[in-house]
């Protein structure tokens, strides 16, 4: 008996069979496309420096997190609104401004609390707050800049229309004072110490409005469900770098100096006037009854009263303490 010769399936049939086998194999291995990077935005500021340090030390790569340096906090908020960032380091008042404008954000950690790091500096010859009347003031066009300026003017007995504003990104406010473009500058460390060394006068600083300027890490609300591991890694890396800086500053001072664009010897002054809460202090600040959580409503009301937001905002659900507790 003669059997018919074996034949190969037509080429089209072979391709269908091969394609099915590949698809079946992919289904079995559970393969899926890699997650897009979680993009975190911040300006070059000491309080945000440990996030950039974490990237420099390789602590963020495996979690798919990338830091992005922007020119101003206003640019950071805009990038969040446009979907170009998933998380950001911002002042708490700026987070509330974003919330007012429709951004769904959650605060997951406090990065620093300003206790003298933000200040109003004046050129030589302007030695008293009331002497600011009629002068040019360099200030960032952000809620934080407006709050500091407003508090200063109130302390000096001046109204906003009695000064002339020169709007600059925060890193450029000191330069405006140096080159004569402005007579006063609402600025922060390390520029405050630099200006003092050059003969400028400190007329007002954040010690006179305790708890007003708080820098936080904010993330888009949907990330709490879609990227909890990445948020956990980001917060953990911040605290790890903070602890390393406090334990052995010499091991990271060069990296921080490069990030902040200052000399290594100036790094210590860049952190002057900043309280840097560790994980335990974060829990106390953010938990119900803590200074930050308790002051949130008052800060939102102040923003509305000062005309920085057009309507009140409900910030009751803004804080999520799971991440500082390490229990996402």
From TrEMBL:
Subcellular localization: Periplasm
Keywords: Signal
Domain of life: Bacteria
Main location group: periplasm
Keyword Signal: yes
Record keyword Acetylation present: no
Recorded family membership: Belongs to the bacterial solute-binding protein SsuA/TauA family.
PANTHER family: ALIPHATIC SULFONATES-BINDING PROTEIN-RELATED, TAURINE-BINDING PERIPLASMIC PROTEIN
Protein's recorded name: ABC transporter substrate-binding protein
Species assigned in the record: Roseateles oligotrophus
């Amino acid at each position: 008996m003669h059997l018919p010769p074996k034949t190969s399936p037509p080429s089209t049939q072979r391709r269908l069979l091969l394609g099915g086998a590949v698809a079946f194999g992919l289904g079995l291995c559970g393969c899926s496309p890699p997650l897009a990077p979680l993009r975190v935005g911040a300006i070059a500021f000491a309080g945000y420096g440990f996030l950039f340090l974490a990237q420099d030390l390789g602590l963020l790569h495996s979690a798919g997190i990338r830091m992005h340096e922007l020119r101003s906090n206003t640019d950071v908020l805009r990038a969040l609104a446009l979907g170009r960032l998933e998380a950001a380091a911002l002042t708490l008042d700026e987070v509330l401004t974003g919330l007012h404008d429709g951004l769904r954000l959650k605060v997951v950690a406090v990065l620093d609390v300003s206790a003298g790091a933000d200040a109003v500096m004046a050129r030589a010859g302007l030695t008293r707050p009331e002497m600011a009347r009629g002068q040019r003031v360099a200030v960032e066009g952000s809620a934080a800049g407006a709050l500091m300026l407003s508090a200063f003017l109130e302390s000096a007995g001046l109204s906003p229309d009695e000064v002339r504003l020169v709007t600059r990104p925060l890193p450029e406010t000191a330069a405006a004072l140096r080159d004569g473009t402005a007579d006063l500058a609402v600025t922060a460390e390390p520029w405050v110490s630099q200006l003092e060394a050059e003969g400028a006068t400190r007329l007002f600083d954040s010690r006179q409005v305790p708890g007003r300027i708080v820098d936080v890490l904010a993330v888009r609300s949907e990330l709490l469900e879609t990227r909890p591991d990445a948020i956990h890694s980001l917060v953990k890396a911040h605290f790890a770098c903070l602890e390393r800086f406090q334990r052995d500053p010499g091991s990271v001072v060069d990296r921080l100096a490069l990030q902040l664009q200052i000399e290594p010897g100036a790094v210590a002054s860049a952190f002057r006037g900043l309280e840097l809460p560790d994980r335990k202090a974060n829990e106390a600040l953010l938990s119900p009854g803590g200074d930050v959580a308790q002051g949130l409503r008052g800060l939102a009301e102040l923003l509305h009263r000062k005309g920085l937001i057009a309507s009140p905002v409900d910030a009751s659900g803004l804080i999520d303490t799971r991440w500082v507790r390490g229990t996402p």
